[in-house]
Specification:
The chain is built from nine helices and 13 strands. The protein is of the alpha/beta class. β1, α1 and β2 form a beta-alpha-beta unit. The radius of gyration is 20 Å and the shape is globular.
């Protein structure tokens, strides 16, 4: 049986990128590489208009065991995306010809492929804008290539294989990996949500958030716990938690009849989020 491998697009630019000294791959105690054998089927496209940065990232990711492709701008990245159907995109904001926001918007219009933004922009609003377009995570510059590798690995573990393969909707009897939330039908086997037979397009991260919140209905899930479980890292600063808020807002916008007065996903102020109205929380806390 042939396993379908990962294909990852990495789109970066030179501004403020600070590589680690040395490019050696972490190894096991016996000297064997601990990820190369797992990554040999993964194809990564690195897009950068700065040759020095392109060389650093290509070298580092090759040492991690990935197969590498390269492109130099957003226009070429889209061409390769359509040709190769990658399973993950790491996308910088500042690119020649077509910027990262526009690339993300075009990809998200046709695919739920996971996207990581790389950004040197300091304003929180700029980072939120990227997440609002459908990115699954962002990494601020300057950053360590090892951190990028970790973010890629976390997302690939979470989404599982064949994340970019379109699937048709089929009816599955309730009780076989299917739960009903009002008029919503959530198929956890196929990671799909539908209302009245019409599929609601969720990214893999959005669906993972839905699963986490409804795993134990009524339980309050702290924002820091959501970040660690879905994105794989603890909050180092308050701004890191904004990715959780943005994703909850996006999920409400797709699932709630009235996102401003949510019934499925509730805010527990100062703590995090909970699923469904259970009456267990003081009115002052739940909104």
């Amino acid at each position: 049986m042939v396993r379908r491998g990962w294909k990852v697009i990495v789109i970066v630019e030179h501004e403020m990128l600070v590589p680690e000294s040395g490019l050696s791959l972490p190894k096991h105690g016996d000297g064997s590489m601990n990820q190369a054998s797992l990554n040999h089927m993964t194809s990564i496209l690195v897009v950068d208009d700065e040759p020095a940065v392109l060389k650093v990232l290509v070298t580092r990711l090759k040492l991690a065991g990935y197969q590498l492709l390269s492109a130099k701008d957003g226009e070429e990245a889209l061409e390769i995306f359509h040709k190769e159907s990658p399973d993950l995109v790491v996308l910088d904001v500042m690119l020649p010809k077509i910027d990262g926001f526009a690339v993300c918007r075009r990809i998200r219009a046709e695919s739920c492929v996971p996207i990581i933004f790389l950004t040197a922009l300091e304003a929180i609003s700029e980072r939120v804008a990227g997440l609002d377009l459908g990115a699954d995570d962002y990494l601020s510059k300057p950053f360590s290539p090892k951190e990028l590798e970790a973010r890629i690995a976390t997302i690939l573990r979470r989404v599982g294989p064949a994340a970019n393969v379109p699937e048709t909707i089929r009816e599955v009897p309730a009780g076989h990996g299917v739960m009903k939330l009002g008029d919503l039908v959530v198929d956890t086997n196929r990671r799909q949500v539908s209302r009245g037979g019409q599929r609601i397009g969720l990214t893999y991260t959005e669906f993972s958030l839905l699963e986490l919140l409804f795993r134990d209905p009524g339980k309050v899930v702290p924002r820091a716990e959501i970040l660690e479980q879905l994105w794989g890292y603890p909050p180092r600063r308050a701004a890191d938690l904004r990715v959780v808020d943005v994703y909850v807002a996006r999920l409400r916008g797709k699932l709630e009849p009235d996102p401003r007065n949510p019934e499925l996903i509730l805010t527990v102020r100062g703590i995090g989020y909970a699923s469904q109205r259970t009456g267990e929380f003081p009115p002052a806390l739940v909104g």
